[in-house]
Specification:
Number of helices of chain A: 1
CATH topology of the largest domain in chain B: FAD/NAD(P)-binding domain
Helix content of chain A: 10-25%
CATH topology of chain A: Folate-binding fold
Oligomer: heterodimer
Largest sheet of chain B: 7 strands, mixed
Shape of chain A: globular
CATH superfamily of the largest domain in chain B: FAD/NAD(P)-binding domain
CATH class of the largest domain in chain B: Alpha Beta
Strand content of chain A: 35-45%
Shape of chain B: elongated
């Protein structure tokens, strides 16, 4: 099973985490001014990369903090684990 | 005692301890140390199976986990294990073994007719047949005929265990290479786990006649083991197969018990690096009719002779395309077994081999191939061709060697890659996965000298990579063994009208491979699936190289171009019981019990599982059935007072300067205007506008809120709140705290509930003036800190009392004592559901589903009237949300007074009862209402609000009945009771 690097707790088993989807999905600042297409884009459309992908993770059974992680969806190699409060790399 | 084929001396068996066992009812004997296959062969039994498709007689083929034929059923009753490899089953007293295919018997199998008609059943025939008139007509017969082994019918009576371990180095394989590496790594101080699937360590040395330091090799093995056992940093795991390697260096190992309380133990091992010393599997030879009982792998023949003192026959022929099989001839000769000839495909047989055979007077036939074999249930002879000359040989056993395939499955699990070595005609490691090392014959070594030398080199390198200094270990002197070149000649395929098997286990032949090419299935993954070569229980371990050779010859592509199919875990089958160890029965999921459980039990509560929580459904008194109890409880709440334990209710506190703003964005309902001491019902939506939760929001202070979530949803909702707070609105200053377990919650509901509360010892003013409907207060009740909400899910005057959980039992008892005179009635979930249904209060998850938006359940106006943005608001103006004809919440009354309404019944269009028809929605909740004396229900009906007053037909599992659509409230629509 994979090990995920929590920025606070270090490398922990995958079962302690919950996956939060792609990072960098921006919620429209004025949703009532988004078109249906823009709103659908925010809700449903993702890049779904084969390769390094920036993702959101939360250490659900540990410190319960959210962070971003670059993970290779093919090889599971990871890098750049940063807390959610910091700017995404 | 018959063991006619047991050699007079030798073997690692205990001749003083004989064992009785049976095969197909025949009583037989063997010795301690035998495998089941060895004992069968000792008794002269080769024919133990029928092939998968053609039901041809088949015999024991190998001596290991690669066995394709001898898959037997071991044991009886609930201990019965199908598809057991006889080569790996250790012989035990009283062992009962049966063959699996063959009806009415193994010896006379009617299904052999498929062999006689084999031209009708090539690869993939089932994709083109059994379609007319209807597959289901054929299905029963096909399912009975197909398949291998009888699935157990009873629960597994054995006990299994699971455990975790960590190490620096996991060594897979305890043969000469693995033992050497363990010694080097162990001495350097690394934490080592050494695992071998056999009953004892030694690997190939268990059946090799090599001499180390002029003594039998097992002496060296014993001395190494003694050293390893003395090292506290080395763990030895015999009888343990490394079944898989997964991402980030985690491996699973299946350990078989030996006089343990458990049958198998599944290890999960996290290691820093892995060393494969897994050896190699001998490959078969492809020639016409190459599947008869009596044909075995040459290495296996040596294995049976040297380790088990068993002769596979009295007149043995050896066929090979490489040097290694010559050792079989030498070993058999030394045991006094008659070796008729060695048939070598190669034109130029090395001089050393020729000399060896001359020394023991065994005939060698270079440049020779087998044209066919004969014999029914046992090999009787071969037809051969050498150059232009054709000749025949009589024999009762044939030892074949088609080369050796390195066992690199674990490397491939870990995404390492392989390259095809043309000299060895085998796949060897190309790119190692990170942290992986390979040594021994798994890396291509063919002589013991090479194996020992490389093992030391590789483990030295490994030690330094892991940061430890490797100390030198003593290397034993290998007595000159036969010069063995690793070179393997290409297994040339010949044309023949007779079938030539590529996969014995799935009965797939060269003809099937040719058919695959004709039909266009030449990509290796297609080829595998079309022919099913390599897909059986043995996963093609003895035949995969030949399959690739066939595909290469047929398509004209080089093997390196063809590639391999994906290797997937597990390497050998893992019992489901081992995977589930510790998670069956009570171990399946934790039970969550109410703090006041003891009191509920004393009230004879009938418990049910709600998302892990064990909660009372109803409290039947002595002569009541469920319905009577529930009706009584409902009526008690409506006429007097009842008490309900709602402790699993989610309770989350929000503190902070921005607490109100935060909740205002989370909930559909307005939060900013909520006064201190006020409660408000709130709906939580997801960004798609779908209702995911509902609950009460209470303002305890300007910057302090308490929200309730659905029971069992508290941690899910907490997670959502934290997600939005941390990732979307980090600028909002809020603290979020789950206090669900800290407070136990009891609802007192009914016209006399206030009266009861005023009897208790409390400083709280419960009067209607001081505590109106939807208001909150706090204080002391019976000496306990209490938070009180006047809210109602039952539709009666109702108070929710929250007190610290540790006092739950005592508090509930106090309530019951105080209310005894007014007949206080504990009520359970069934009664609660009926009460709320009478009021038409929806239950999220029952009446709503993954598509329900606020307007569907009557909250449309509130959703649109809030100007500020909240989660999900934008989705409420999407085209799908604005469509007419959406399903809407309605109430239902059956037209016939006595009709039972059930959730799940579908509304049919129009007044017709005809099905199939497009569903107009369905009944979502239903119950018998004792207050109305009939069944009532809620449902989601397309355009429901426009259909009030109409009659619709409901279809319910084959029955039809009419219902009337009514507003979703059956009792006290003016809410006089709950506002009293």
């Amino acid at each position: 099973m994979l090990r995920i690097p929590c920025p606070w707790c270090g490398l922990r088993d995958l079962t302690e985490f919950r996956f939060g989807g792609e990072a960098g999905v921006l919620r429209p600042l004025q949703p009532d001014q988004s078109s249906d297409e823009q709103w659908a884009d925010y809700l449903y459309y993702r890049n779904n990369l084969n390769g390094p992908q920036l993702e959101r993770w939360v250490h659900a059974y540990g410190c319960r903090q959210w962070f971003a992680l670059r993970r290779d969806t093919h090889s599971h190699a990871w890098s750049d684990a940063v807390p959610a409060s910091e700017k995404y790399p | 005692m018959s063991q006619k084929f047991r050699l007079d001396s030798g073997g690692l068996i205990n001749r003083q301890q004989s064992l009785n066992f049976s095969f197909n009812g025949q009583k037989l004997q063997g010795y301690v140390g035998d495998s089941l296959a060895a004992a069968l062969l000792a008794n002269g039994i080769h024919h133990v199976a029928r092939s998968f498709k053609y039901h041809r007689p088949r015999g024991i083929y190998s001596a290991g986990e690669e066995e394709p034929n001898a898959l037997l059923e071991i044991g009886q009753g609930s201990w019965r294990v199908p598809n057991s490899r006889a080569t790996l089953v250790p012989l035990q007293e009283g062992l009962v073994a049966r063959s699996q295919l063959g009806w009415p018997s193994l010896g006379f199998d009617l299904a052999r007719c498929f062999d006689f008609s084999h031209r009708l059943w090539p690869a993939g025939f089932y994709n083109k047949t059994f379609k007319w008139p209807n597959w289901h007509l054929w299905e029963g017969m096909v399912r009975n005929l197909a398949g291998l082994g009888r699935a157990p019918e009873e629960a597994d009576p054995d006990h299994y265990e699971k455990t975790n371990a960590f190490c620096d180095l996991l060594i897979c394989g305890g043969g000469p290479a693995g033992l050497t590496a363990a010694l080097v790594a162990g001495r350097s101080g690394l934490r080592v786990i050494l695992a071998d699937q056999d009953e004892q360590f030694g690997g190939s040395l268990l059946w090799d006649t090599a001499m180390l330091d002029e003594k039998p090799a097992l002496h060296w093995v014993a001395s190494v083991l003694a050293q390893l056992e003395a090292m506290p940093n080395v763990m030895l795991l015999p009888r343990t197969t490394v079944t898989a390697s997964y991402d980030h260096q985690i491996a699973t190992l299946l350990q078989r018990g030996h006089n343990n309380a458990w049958r198998e133990c599944l290890w999960t091992v996290r290691c820093r690096s892995t060393l494969l010393a897994t050896g190699a599997i001998e490959q078969s030879l492809v020639f016409p009719l190459n599947d008869r009982p009596g044909i075995l792998l040459a290495g296996a023949v040596r294995h049976y002779a040297n380790r088990y003192a068993v002769a596979v026959g009295q007149r043995v022929v050896i066929a090979t395309n490489n040097d290694s099989a010559y050792q079989t001839a030498i070993d058999l000769f030394n045991h006094g077994v008659n070796v008729i000839a060695v048939i070598d495909q190669r034109k130029d047989v090395p001089a050393a081999m020729l000399q060896n055979m001359q020394d023991i007077a065994v005939r060698v036939c270079p440049n020779a191939q087998i044209l066919s074999s004969r014999g029914g249930k046992r090999l009787r002879g071969l037809a051969l061709q050498q150059g232009q000359k054709k000749f025949k040989l009589n024999c009762d056993a044939l030892a074949v060697s088609g080369g050796w395939a390195a066992r690199l499955h674990l490397l491939c699990h870990a995404r390492g890659s392989l390259r095809f070595d043309t000299q060895r005609q085998a796949f060897l490691p190309e790119r190692l996965a990170e942290g992986f090392f390979v040594t021994g014959s798994a890396a291509g070594d063919s002589t013991l000298v090479e194996v020992l030398a490389r093992a030391e080199t590789v483990s030295n390198g490994l030690c330094s990579e892991l940061g430890k200094k490797a100390l030198q270990v003593y290397q034993p002197k290998v007595s000159p063994s036969n010069l063995e070149s690793p070179a393997v000649a290409v297994n040339t395929l010949q044309f023949s009208r007779q079938r030539q098997w590529l996969d014995l286990a799935h009965d797939a032949t060269l003809g099937d491979a040719e058919l695959a090419e004709r039909e266009g299935y030449t990509a290796v993954e297609h080829f595998k699936r079309f022919t099913t070569i390599g897909m059986s229980v043995d996963q093609g371990k003895t035949g995969n190289i030949n399959a690739f050779l066939a595909l290469s010859a047929i398509t004209g592509k080089a093997i390196s171009e063809i590639g391999t199919t994906t290797f997937r875990p597990p390497y050998t089958p893992v019992t489901l019981g081992a995977l589930a160890a510790g998670h069956t029965g009570e171990g399946y999921a934790p039970r969550r019990t109410l703090a006041a459980e003891n009191t509920h039990k004393s009230l004879q509560a009938c418990f049910e599982d709600y998302g892990g929580w064990q909660r009372p459904d109803y409290y039947p008194s002595d002569r009541e059935d469920a319905h009577q109890a529930i009706n009584r409880e409902v009526l008690a709440v409506r006429t007097s007072v009842g008490v309900y334990d709602n402790s699993p209710l989610g309770k989350i506190e929000i503190h902070g300067l921005d607490a109100a703003e935060f909740l205002h964005r989370i909930y559909m309902n307005r939060v900013h205007g909520l006064a201190v001491g006020q409660c408000r019902y709130g709906l939580m939506l997801n960004e798609g506008g779908v209702i995911i939760d509902d609950g009460i929001v209470t303002r305890l202070a300007a910057e302090h809120f308490l929200i309730n979530t659905t029971s069992g949803g508290a941690s899910r909702i907490l997670g959502r709140l934290e997600e939005w707070s941390q990732t979307e609105w980090p600028e909002l200053q809020v603290l979020i705290d789950d206090v669900s377990a800290q407070w136990s919650n009891f609802t007192l509901a009914g016209p006399r509930s206030r009266e009861l509360l005023q009897q208790l010892d409390s400083d709280i003013d419960f009067s209607a003036a001081a505590l109106a409907h939807m208001q909150a207060t706090h204080g002391m009740i019976e000496g306990l800190e209490a938070r009180v909400n006047r809210i109602s899910f039952s539709g009666e005057l109702s108070f929710e009392l929250n007190i610290p959980s540790s006092y739950a039992n005592g508090f509930l008892q106090r309530l019951l004592e105080s209310g005894a005179a007014m007949g206080i009635t504990p009520y359970g979930i069934e009664a609660l559901m009926t009460l709320r249904l009478e009021k038409g209060f929806m239950h999220v998850g029952s009446d709503t589903d993954g598509e329900t938006i606020p307007d569907d359940v009557g909250w449309g106006k509130a959703a649109m009237n809030k100007a500020a943005d909240y989660i999900g608001k934008r989705s409420l103006t999407r085209p799908a949300s604005l469509e007419s004809n959406r399903r809407q919440l309605v109430g239902l009354l059956a037209v016939h007074q006595d009709q039972v309404l059930r959730s799940g019944g579908h509304f049919l269009p129009g007044s017709s009862q005809r099905t199939p028809a497009e569903t107009q929605g369905w009944i979502t909740s239903a119950a018998f209402s004792p207050n109305l004396g009939r069944h009532i229900a809620l449902g989601m009906l397309r355009d429901g609000r426009k259909r009030l007053g109409q009659i619709m037909q409901v279809y319910d599992a084959g029955n039809h009945y009419p219902v009337k659509i009514v507003p979703p409230c059956f009792l006290d629509p003016e809410n006089q009771r709950l506002e009293s």
